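Section 3.1: Structural characterization of target chains.
Under the original work plan, the team committed to producing a structural model for every single-chain target entering the pipeline before any wet-lab resources were allocated. The record below documents one such target. The sequence was received from the expression subgroup and is listed exactly as submitted; it comprises 119 residues.
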Amino acid sequence: MNLSVWSITGVVGVLAGAAAAQPVPIIEGSSHAELQKKFCAANPNIEHVLIGPATLFVDSQQIICDNGPYKLYRIVNAQDTDDFDYFLDPPVYAHGKRLGCDGKAGRSMRTVALNCRPL
């Protein structure tokens, strides 16, 4: 099955089916400011899919939420050097629930999607 040709609707449909037909909230932002606003407002108690431009992960930026800074970054996948692993890591010292996100995409991808889960 080649996921690269699936639409976002198709991927969300598969995710929703896996979660007992519950829709998976999508956090989508085309800029750092928009992504920060939407991510910080997201419910940290449920899974989300985060979609944004790959360029946001290039220079290890941060998203600053009330419970602390989240780090955006990417690294070359050691087993598959044509891919990047993408991360949105939560603050370690945060109180209460928080989201941790990760994903994988080809090096030439302009838009990436990460799975976010409550920690």
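Helices lie at 8-18, 32-41.
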